[in-house]
């Protein structure tokens, strides 16, 4: 049991590192190009792992599911996250990611017809209040505020929620679904990069190359493997609350490695968001966890 929780905690640590590495890379390369490269490498690695396990992708019957999951998780969620990190410190982005479980609960209530209880609604309201406190609101020009990293990260949370809820409704092996989604995301990601990328004019430093290798392997492959090992040992319902560690790890890494600072509104808002996520997500297990 203890080893299972260690696997789960390690997975959330690796996922939180994606925000820190993404912040480093946002200063050295275009976010859309980064996302295309990341998921191309990850797709190859996941395909190799799938084949090594004697499994294969069911293209004929599942191509549409793979495409939808890839579009939601590996294209929209990841692209919006990296675009947000180009405008926002990793600490702020990680705290906003605490909204992800709340979005999943709201979509589950709507699409899966799940019945909410009082603690669920209390958690949702708390999380919304926390985000209002967390997000900067002192800008005089509201039209400029619409394209800030805060808004992009909130949109990313919605994309992740759709990805997760769709995954809940699809029966199948998680590794197969994730691999299929990653493979199907490669072409859309490169098309998006070709259309939307702006020339960075720079080159990757040694730290940048390390960060690129990390985001393509740690959060996408290793964390996924650790998470599933932990779920098998601990159970889905006991595993779900550990996802709330992700924002906390991001704060620790952002402050420790990037020397970012926490403002008072970030501390207060982050605590409220996490409390809301814990209340709303407590009775509901998480189904998928890869595209961080």
Automatic annotation (TrEMBL):
Keywords: Cell membrane, Membrane, Transmembrane, Transmembrane helix. The chain crosses the membrane at residues 36-53, 65-85, 91-112, 119-136, 142-163, 175-195, 207-227, 239-257, 263-281. The keyword Transmembrane helix applies. This is EamA domain-containing protein. SUPFAM superfamilies: Multidrug resistance efflux transporter EmrE. Belongs to the EamA transporter family. It comes from Sulfobacillus acidophilus (strain ATCC 700253 / DSM 10332 / NAL). Residues 3-135, 148-280 form the EamA domain. GO terms for cellular component: plasma membrane. It is a multi-pass membrane protein. It is found in: Cell membrane. PANTHER family: INNER MEMBRANE TRANSPORTER, S-ADENOSYLMETHIONINE_S-ADENOSYLHOMOCYSTEINE TRANSPORTER. The keyword Transmembrane applies.
